[in-house]
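Technical annex, item 7. During the second reporting period the consortium partners agreed on a shared format for inverse folding records so that results from different sites could be compared directly. Each record opens with the tokenized structure and is followed by the designed sequence. A conforming record, contributed by the partner at site C, is shown below for reference.
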């Protein structure tokens, strides 16, 4: 199967997919989409890759998939090993809930579109940062006891799951918004553990071909 990922190095949604691809050990081509330059709004990209003007988009043998969680679930379906979801149905639901806290409740409130909308409404840079910090802290406050209860190196158990595919990019985003992670020791422990894992290292923003090193 030929895979091509349309990604932006610093965006957290494609970062999730990169982790999933790396954990599955899948080869893929990388196409950078510069969100700051507005390449996600190009007519061809919108028509053939992502009608939402977003990343990621994953091409798989000529078909295009969007939405990071849907892509991760698809990867699990077509490449079930190594598994990114536990076998037990209740455990699977817990992992999905962890991922949804991040992908549905935290990330949509601090992504680039929201930052631009806040700017257009006259919110200054400190105000935008405070906004992002609020929602990251709110989500991490809910997630922390779940990780503390279920984590054994990773967010759920001792092997990476879809929850980690979402959590590690959100920790990265938290750093960009200067969020104090001191109140979240379980989350920090997972991030420290993942930082030593080859798949997570390969997926890191600074290791992408379109990364900008200031």
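Designed sequence (site C submission):
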């Amino acid at each position: 199967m030929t895979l091509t990922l349309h990604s932006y190095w610093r965006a957290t949604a494609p970062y999730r997919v990169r982790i999933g691809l790396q954990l599955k050990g899948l080869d893929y081509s990388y196409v950078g989409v510069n969100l700051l330059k507005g390449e996600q709004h190009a007519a061809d990209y919108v028509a053939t890759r992502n009608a939402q003007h977003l990343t990621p988009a994953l091409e798989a043998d000529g078909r295009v998939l969007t939405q990071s969680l849907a892509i991760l679930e698809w990867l699990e379906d077509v490449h079930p090993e190594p598994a990114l979801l536990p076998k037990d149905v209740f455990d699977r639901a817990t992992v999905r809930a962890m991922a949804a806290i991040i992908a549905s409740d935290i990330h949509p409130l601090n992504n680039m579109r929201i930052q631009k909308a806040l700017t257009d409404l006259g919110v200054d840079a400190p105000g935008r940062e405070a906004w992002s910090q609020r929602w990251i802290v709110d989500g991490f406050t809910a997630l922390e006891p779940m990780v503390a209860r279920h984590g054994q190196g990773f967010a759920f158990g001792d092997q990476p799951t879809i929850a980690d595919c979402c959590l590690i990019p959100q920790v990265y985003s938290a750093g960009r918004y200067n969020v104090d992670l001191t109140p979240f020791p379980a989350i920090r422990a997972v991030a420290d553990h993942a930082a030593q894992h080859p798949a997570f290292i390969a997926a890191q923003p600074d290791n992408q071909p379109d990364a900008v090193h200031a």
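Residues 50 and 57 are 6 Å apart (CA to CA). The longest strand covers residues 3-7. All partners now use this format for quarterly exchanges.
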